[in-house]
Amino acid sequence: MTLEGIPTRKGGGFGEYVRRTAKASLRETGTFAYVMHRITGILLTLYLFIHIGAMSLARIQGQSFEELMATFRQPMFLLIDWFIFLGVLIHGLNGIRLILFDLGIGIRRQATIFWGLMALGGLVALTGLVIILPEIIGGV
Amino acid sequence: MTIFGVFRYAPEDGKARFVDYQLDVPRGTTVLDCLLKIKHEMDGSLSFRYSCRSAICGSCAMTIDGTNRLACKTQVSTLGRVVKVEPLTGYPVIKDLIVDMDLFWRQYTSIKPYLIYRSSPPEGEWTQSPEERRILEEPSTCIMCGACSSSCPVIWTDERYLGPAALLKVWRFVADSRDEAEEERLGMINNEFGVWRCHTIFRCVDSCPKEINPTEAIEHLRRAAVRHSIRGLFRRK
User: Of the candidates A50, A123, B84, B212, which lies 20 to 30 Å from B186 by C-alpha distance?
Assistant: First the structure.
């Protein structure tokens, strides 16, 4: 049987892919990890370009490195830094999880490994927040 | 009382919609029992595939409450008061819950799902040690229902990807001590539409009604493909 003449193809198209994957990610750890990896990956790539753009612009405008750093130590930027740190943790730790599977380690306990690593990431992120919080609050 | 929201599609009118059916469901009733009751007593036009009713043939794979399952194996008591029943995702719908599995079977046949041997087969029985057989235990349990491949988000966007069912089958033959086509098989899957396209999402594992782990098979194949590629580098010298 050819596919011609069958108008309905469930799951076809990028929009449908996003909708179904997002819905599944709310129920399934593996899909949630996959979605988070993509979101953090895209955001970190965007950040990288913004970072390079901001640094280059400052150099073109003749700002010194110290002046630029002073701008980036404002509370709002410190908070953004913390979110970037959080994204790096999620992306990096999940990356380690995927490498473990490639090496044949823990594939039958993928959900436990994911949540274990995320708990570790959460702890590290909270520690980071505690460290920079006085600077954020103090600078407001 | 359980409400079944069943996906309905008739090629004549070309419209897809959900139709609700209310049923009294006694304990021990499967989703397939309910679909048969709907067909026999409420709406004879409802179409779906089924055959063995004992989770062996794989015909009644469908999406039940968002997860691919076998209707004959799924107890309604394990679901909520409202049960959503849809055809498998990723394949064209022919009518109601029946999908065209052509893509699935094309992927399956493309990987040569049979033993290949270059040397002469032994006379009489072709024996394997219990250890050699044990490796094949899980991949051989696959009933080819298509639940895994249909749940894979990668296949939804790219039909060229072989998918978990076909890759599991490749591993079943690569791991078989009697098969002599490892090089050919690894050549089939060591590319962007083979094992390297898998994003390790585990949806195939979550949806397999026989509790097989296709992702693990894909990881076995990845390591075998890397070993094969490294060996190839030295052979060329």
Answer: B212
Chain-chain contact of A7 with B11 (C-beta, under 8 angstroms): yes
- Find chain A residues with C-beta within 8 A of B94's C-beta: 6
Q: Give how far the C-alpha of residue B200 lies from the chain's centroid of Cα atoms, to the nearest Å.
A: 16
Please state the φ and ψ torsions of residue B182, each to the nearest 5 degrees.
Answer: -55, -45
Report which DSSP code applies to B71: T
Phi/psi for B5 (5° steps) reads -90, 100
Amino acid identity, residue B3?
Answer: I
- Over residues B178-222, the pLDDT tens digits come to 999 999 999 999 999 999 999 999 999 999 999 999 999 999 999
> For B98-113, what is each residue's pLDDT tens digit?
999 999 999 999 999 9
Contact between residue B50 and residue B27 where contact means Cβ atoms under 8 Å apart: no
Show residues of chain A in contact with B199, CB under 8 Å.
34
How far from the centroid of its chain's Cα atoms is residue B80's Cα? 25
CA torsion sign for B167, B169, B175, B177 is negative
Per-residue tokens: A102: 């490639």
Please give the CATH superfamily to which domain B102-236 belongs.
Answer: Alpha-helical ferredoxin (1.10.1060.10)
**B213 in contact with A, Cβ within 8 Å:** yes
Residue B183, CA atoms < 13 Å, CB-side half-sphere: 6
ipTM over 0.95: no
d(CA A103, CA B219): 8
Distance from CA of A75 to the nearest CA of B (A): 37
What CATH number matches the domain at B2-99, 3.30.930.10, 3.10.20.30, 3.90.1150.200, 3.30.10.20?
3.10.20.30
